[in-house]
Amino acid sequence: MSSARFYPSNASRQQAYRDRQRRKAVAPDVLCRQLSPTCTVYQGDCTVVSKLLPRKAAVVSDPPYPKYDYTKTRRRASRWPENFPGMDEPFDPTPWLQFPEVILMGADHYWVPQMERGAVWFWHKTPGQDPGDQAPCEMIWLSAPGPPKVLPHKWLGRMREGEENWVHLHDKLHPAQKPVKLMTHLVQHTAAPVVIDPFMGSGTTLAACVRLGRPCIGIEIDESYFATACARVQEELQQLTLFE
User: Is residue 10 part of a domain?
Assistant: First the structure.
């Protein structure tokens, strides 16, 4: 008795063809990896890759912008030998505001008039703690209008709440790493068919998407952080299969 054969549907074949064409269209110096059928990552300049991105998408990201020096010694010596790409030049959010849904961290550092129509949330990093020389909160901008909201989640040096606390995560994977719980909450406030993080960093947004079963695309220009994000997302995917 012959074994049954699986024939992909027309929709599946068409999607696979579009994925292949998209990867072929990438500039030669941009690395593209398909970590899963619903997760694609690029290592390169997001301004180059942006031409290939689906327009019906939600952008959820923590973009780079000039802020404090991560290499500076504060209460203890910094473990970061250099700042990550993009911190030495102003960030222009305008190209990303063209997407139907947008959520951006650190919005007060690059505010433009087009952002007046959205909502502002605040990530409270130091609930019940003295912030010392660190910022007690971070502004989050959402393109969808709504009332202000405060999201408390401790994130003060090595005093980190949840799965990234010092016991589970001795050192952060990226200087500007965000809590996966926070990014999961933000992704849940989008409804687009795919989520894009054009400044992927250590891959926190993509990790949140994997847990939520949301298709996602990540872009990271730094080679070492790209490798870190890929390893992290692949670990999330492996964890997912254990519970299927």
Answer: no
Here the CATH number for the domain that contains residue 118 is 3.40.50.150
List alpha helices for 7-110, DSSP H: 10-24, 46-49
Q: Tell whether 63 is covered by a domain.
A: yes
Q: How many residues does the chain have?
A: 244
Q: Structural domain tally of the chain? A: 1
With a CB cutoff of 8 Å and minimum separation 6, the contacts of 198 are 46, 49, 50, 59, 61, 63, 96, 219
pLDDT digits (tens, 9 = 90+) for 85-105: 888 889 999 999 999 999 999
- Find the helix or strand (DSSP H, E) in which 124 lies: strand 119-124
CA distance 99 to 88: 26
Contact 208, 32 (CB under 8 A): no
The structure's pTM equals 0.86
Query: Is residue 46 one of the residues assigned to a domain?
Result: yes
Q: How far is CA 204 from CA 1, 135, 196, 226, 239, in A?
A: 48, 21, 12, 12, 15
**Closest by Cα among 106, 7, 10, 31 to 61:** 106
